[in-house]
Amino acid sequence: MTVLLIIFFAVIVILSLLKLSLRPPHFPPGPRGVPLLGYAPLMPKKEPIFKFMQKLSKTYGPVTGFYLGPTQPFISVVGPQAVKEALHNNDLNGRPTGAILLSRTFGESLGLIFVDGEFWQEQRRFTLRHLRDLGFGKTSIEDQMMDEINDLISEITATAKSDPEHIVDFKAIFSVSVINILWAIVGGKRFQRNDPQFKKLLDNVNKFLESGNAVQANLPVPAFLVRLFPSLPRRLGINTELFHPIQKFIEENIDEHLSTRLQAEVARDFIDVYMDEMEEQLKANVSTTFSKKQLICSIQDLFAAGSHTSASSIGFAVLYLIHYPEVQQKMREELDNVCGDSLPSLAHRSRLPYTEAVLMEVMRMASIAPLAIPHRAMKETQLQGFTIPKGSIIAINLDSAFKDATVWEDAENFRPERHLDQNGKVIKNDAFTPFGIGKRICLGEPLARNTVFLFVASLVKTFELKSVSNKPLPTLEPEAGIILGPKPFKAVVIPRV
Ligand code: HEM
């Protein structure tokens, strides 16, 4: 083993020296790193990576290139034009396959997020089709959403009433509601808001997404080292062990589905649909991408991508509305005019342009997925006139497009009106792509949009949300991480009569 390690390190020293001096022709400009480790050790530890990359672009331009470790090219894409070009370039549709990331999924390329090629296409197409059939983004799931919203409203009302100042703690309050909507489609079950086991699982997802960064996750650590030292990803800031209890929970649910499924019974949810397909393909004896492990990892990905993102968006909306009470009031007036005495529904949505504009502005300002999810060059390709080598990791800075001064007037200010034309109709700016664009666009976009709309609109219709008197306004600065969430905050909640 010692000999193996010495040979391994000798090879990477040589490769590193070669790479640092010999960048491929037309490689994007960027900083040089140190031998062996590339630019990784020079990256800031405290500053958010997406902000640091925006700073680099001021020196090197919209496409910056450097090496992580001795052999891994890393490309940072900043600004609306470069971001759009990168997202539409199908050669950049791959995902990183490094051993650190794979340790999330049993050391294999499984799931929906960190897979690519034909495997990804088949699994994504199947998942999207069946989640849609089961209610994703459709009004058929609206009743379920409204149950969750009513449940949340009851809890917030009870908490506000039990406090003499009507103060409610908004820490992690939305996650269970949001995941219950997803889980109704995937696993056909609902969890109690205070179920400690379920809360712990969601907490693990949040911890994972709030730790680590796009650079550490892609350090080119060889798989044998991760196998030898399973805690290595955690030590490098990517705590993939947090997913172990989630995988166990998902597997138990799949087993329960198998044991309770009656012959000829129609599929109850996504787990049933998936297991049916798997069985059929196994019976037909064809080579298949379907497996129980893949189902566990797909559900894990839906969990990871779907809970913290939607919950953070709702949390940020509440936070911005506390900071901008006049916006909150204007939104409430529109909701009262259009919805009368009832809670907002999806049918009202097209008649609520101001509410829509507020939600768009929250997503622009909060920019919860500032670097999208890293892409990978499937083959050598061109971006903004530069050559991107095969295998490069691409960090696409969505946040930079949301704040670009050439596209947005007073970009740093919260101003929902910017999303409306003179007639008060919603307008869509090309640079505003919170769910990404192109083939890798967010798989949960319709569900997320409906969820965030119904929750925020219902909260504003039901409550007046205010800052706590004699306390500074809660910060709008996000909790750092791969996905940005609001820092824990409290607000005064006055139920409207
Ligand atoms: C407000 C909430 C959400 C936002 C802002 C958001 C944003 C994003 C973004 C920016 C990407 C990466 C696009 C790229 O790499 O180019 C993504 C991917 C993804 N999202 Fe979402 N998302 C949200 C909610 C959800 C929900 C609710 C689900 C599932 C239930 C979901 C599932 C996924 C999946 C599976 C991917 C990977 C798609 C692929 O690689 O093919 N997301 N999302």
From TrEMBL:
Q: Nucleus: present as a keyword of the record?
A: no
Q: Which InterPro entries match?
A: Cyt_P450 (IPR001128), Cyt_P450_CS (IPR017972), Cyt_P450_E_grp-I (IPR002401), Cyt_P450_sf (IPR036396), Cytochrome_P450_fam2 (IPR050182)
Alphabetized, the UniProt keywords read: Heme, Iron, Metal-binding, Monooxygenase, Oxidoreductase
A GO cellular component term found in this entry reads: cytoplasm
Cofactors required? heme
Query: What's one GO MF term for it?
Result: heme binding
Amino-acid positions noted as binding heme in the UniProt annotation, renumbered to this chain? 442
Which GO terms of type biological process are on file?
A: organic acid metabolic process; xenobiotic metabolic process
What family does this belong to? Belongs to the cytochrome P450 family.
The record's annotation in PANTHER family points to: CYTOCHROME P450 15A1, CYTOCHROME P450 508A4-RELATED
Q: What protein name is recorded for this chain?
A: Cytochrome P450
Say which species the protein is native to: Daphnia galeata
